[in-house]
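== Folding the chain ==

***
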Amino acid sequence: MKTPNLFTIYKTIENQEKMQLNKVKTIRTVELFAGVGGFRLGLEKVQSEKKNFNIVWSNQWEPSTKVQHASDIYCARFGYENHSNEDIATVNTDHIPEHDLLVGGFPCQDYSVASTLKNANGIVGKKGVLWWQIYRILEEKKENSPKYLMLENVDRLLKSPATQRGRDFALMLSSLNSLGYAVEWRVIDASVYGMPQRRKRIFIMGYKKDTYHYNLIKNNTNEVIFNKEGIFAKAFPIHEIESKNIIVKELNSDLVDITQNFNKETPKENAFLESGYMIDGMYHTCKITPNYEGVNKILKDILEDESAVPKEFYIDEEDLKKWEYQKGGKSFERTNKTTGHVYTYSEGSMSFPDSLDKPARTIITGEGGASASRFKHVVCVNGRYRRLTPVELERANMFPDNHTAGVSDTKRAFLMGNALVVGIVERLGKVLLNESEIL
């Protein structure tokens, strides 16, 4: 019997690997406003032998700085291939590859639209507002637009602007409805589901018409969607709600009319509550109570060993008085620069130092730097007061240690203040991946 040569053996192994690879179902994913890759990290954590999320293209652009720190870190961790570091408004949609899922944490801005312009087709979104870039991509992709959307924003999106609460979110829902998407949303506090930071954000899932999840919403009652079958119901369980507590309303399809008139009669009332869904121009929304019985991570769990903490993070006794003042209650007079009106500004005292037995407070972009601040974290370990290190801030967002290494500590804190809690994306991705009908 003739012994096969090494080339034949290697070729056989290569063919077997290709056959195995072909069995893997891949969800082609585009990550917009990628930051340092929070969505990507969460989705890649739930890969399986039969299914995975594959980032086929990503975009990160920071307009206010010459050095693109977030994009540089993204490329250092994930590579330069298929990554775009340019203003998304200048990117031709044809240059974005076809994909099944679009993800992104877009900025919270004023989403108002202009009236239809002469010689222009349809509505013109407010210039510079990045939501309309998502809309542009979906609209221009037409039948090749992604089947699924996973988006994140600050929870005040549901209440903005203050003069027409809910108007901006209504514009989003109505524009997605016009493109043939159903939408689910939920405001999630990461700490309520066992994660190490009290970070409250709205997550939005979109399902294109005729997909499994679109039909699931269409063919079930609102009680079933909220309590059992919706993606959020599966990923983030709640105590059962009754139909009588669900608000159901029709959504205007005229974006200009929404801009000008939405919630004008009751501007202080919330049109949208922390949980809901929209399909065929009707939205259903309600208050919910989380139902979580798992392990809870606290600030103590994410601290580095003290031997690894650089000395510059410790606060000396003289500076400690400045921190105590910032954290304490106080009131003083202020003058409105426009009207000249004099008023008393007051703020209550904060816990000082931060409790090690609770999750971290919300990480903000100004968390870095040694100067005393009301909003930065201070912990006391072995009788010594100190700020949180970049690694601890990464852990609060469930990022790998030193994911943001390579830039200054202050910039690392800024990047984590702009990031999301990876665990939330991981749980949503797991449900999406397990629904076998999505591909």
